[in-house]
């Protein structure tokens, strides 16, 4: 098999999702020529798609060393760096890819995503629009525009771009997922869950369980803000009651209203979602699952405390509800931490950070030892230095 045969065969296998075979063929080709930049870049892409981000970055770095002027290699490096949460380096790599191949829309698209990850949304939108102008019928370009617009908070523009992509490729899994998540952000619960269920049914090997539990996680996200603000207002009214007696009555009314709002919002989201989020909940990473279940329990207890305060007028119930707000925020941080540990990019970023801390600590200890050994020793009783 020639190098070209190995490259095209591996590329075709990768395009249909047969990543293990694509990796094997690419490695077989590299065994004969380890410095083939095209095969190294393709292998890096396959490893990235297999979520082996650190190995993908090492491989594409080798490709750049073999062919420093390969725009594809620099673009692939930017993709890897994005997944490893190294946004500034990704912008630099994507900028180099655009410099080397200014007429290739792929470099502009990865640069747009990299800029969006640094929250430079104005430039990201300009670059994405320019990339789309170079390939108006490109599904990847349209979905990049949709991603950038969604990150920038422009849901209507994001939806329009995603729908344009699906008009070209109605079976595109990412485009359908993106539409479902945009529906979720608008609280179109039934349509969102229907879209996510269809995507999972068509891709049973890689179901997005975290997305399919968004109604539960979304409820907790909204309720922790509402509980914190509402319970704080109730307690403020109770304090004001020392000077204005009607404030105590207002606090009880506010507790009843807050409990009704929290319960109503929960029902508004969870009832239309049906059974799917609850079926996916046990399949989440353990820490995330426990954080979500504990969060739901805390919300239920907080609502009971607010109802008890509205009925009895005991200030302790309101204070207890307020103290549950930081518990909810703590559980949300546990959920985020679990999501990070479940993502290979974040896991590698944590490892890199830990490695940098260990290196810093070892260097600091060495510098302290050297500084201590260079310090003049105090004189002895005879005035001589020891």
Describe the secondary-structure layout:
Blueprint: H1 3-15, H2 19-32, H3 37-49, H4 53-66, H5 71-83, H6 87-100, H7 105-117, H8 121-134, H9 139-151, H10 155-168, H11 173-185, H12 189-202, H13 209-212, H14 214-240, H15 246-273, H16 276-280, H17 286-312, H18 315-342, H19 344-374
Name some characteristics of this structure.
mainly alpha, 0% strand, 81% helix, 386 residues, Ycf3, TPR_rpt
The assigned structural class equals mainly alpha
Instruction: State the end-to-end CA separation.
Output: 75 Å
Mean pLDDT: 84
Query: Number of helical segments?
Result: 19
What do these coordinates show?
With about 375 residues, the protein is mainly α. It has a domain at about 215-345. It is built from 19 helices and no strands. Helix 8 (about 120-135) packs antiparallel against helix 9, helix 14 (about 215-240) packs antiparallel against helix 18 (about 315-340) and helix 17 packs antiparallel against helix 18 (about 315-340).
Q: Can you summarize this structure?
A:
With 386 residues, the protein is mostly helical.
């Amino acid at each position: 098999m020639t190098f070209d045969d190995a490259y095209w065969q591996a590329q075709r296998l990768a395009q249909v999702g047969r990543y293990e075979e694509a990796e094997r063929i690419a490695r077989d080709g590299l065994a004969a020529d380890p410095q083939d930049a095209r095969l190294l870049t393709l292998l890096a892409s396959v490893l990235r798609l297999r979520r082996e981000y650190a190995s993908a970055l090492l491989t594409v770095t080798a490709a750049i060393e073999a062919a420093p002027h390969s725009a594809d290699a620099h673009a692939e490096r930017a993709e890897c760096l994005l997944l490893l949460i190294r946004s500034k380096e990704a912008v630099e790599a994507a900028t180099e890819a655009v410099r080397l191949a200014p007429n290739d829309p792929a470099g502009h698209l990865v640069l747009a995503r990299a800029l969006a990850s640094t929250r430079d949304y104005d430039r990201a939108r300009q670059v994405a629009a320019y990339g789309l102008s170079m390939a108006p019928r490109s599904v990847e370009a349209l979905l990049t525009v949709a991603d950038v617009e969604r990150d920038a908070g422009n849901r209507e523009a994001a939806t329009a771009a995603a729908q344009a992509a699906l008009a070209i490729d109605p079976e595109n899994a990412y485009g359908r997922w993106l539409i479902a998540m945009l529906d979720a952000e608008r609280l179109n619960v039934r349509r969102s869950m229907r879209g996510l269920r269809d995507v999972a049914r068509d891709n049973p090997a890689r179901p997005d369980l975290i997305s399919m539990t968004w109604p539960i996680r979304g409820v907790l996200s909204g309720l922790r803000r509402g509980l914190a603000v509402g319970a704080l207002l109730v307690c403020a009214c109770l304090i004001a009651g020392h000077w204005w007696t009607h404030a105590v009555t207002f606090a009880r009314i506010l507790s009843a209203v807050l409990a009704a709002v929290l319960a109503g919002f929960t029902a508004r989201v969870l009832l239309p979602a049906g059974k799917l989020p609850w079926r996916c909940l046990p399949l989440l990473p353990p820490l995330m699952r426990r954080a979500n279940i504990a969060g739901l329990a805390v919300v239920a207890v907080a609502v009971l405390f607010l109802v008890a305060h509205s009925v009895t007028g005991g200030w302790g119930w309101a204070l207890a509800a307020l103290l549950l707000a930081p518990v909810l925020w703590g559980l949300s941080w546990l959920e985020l931490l679990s999501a990070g540990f479940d993502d290979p990019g974040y896991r590698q970023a944590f490892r890199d950070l830990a490695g940098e801390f260990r290196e810093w600590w070892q260097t600091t200890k060495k510098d302290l030892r050297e500084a201590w050994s260079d310090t003049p020793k105090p004189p002895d009783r005879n005035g001589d230095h020891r």
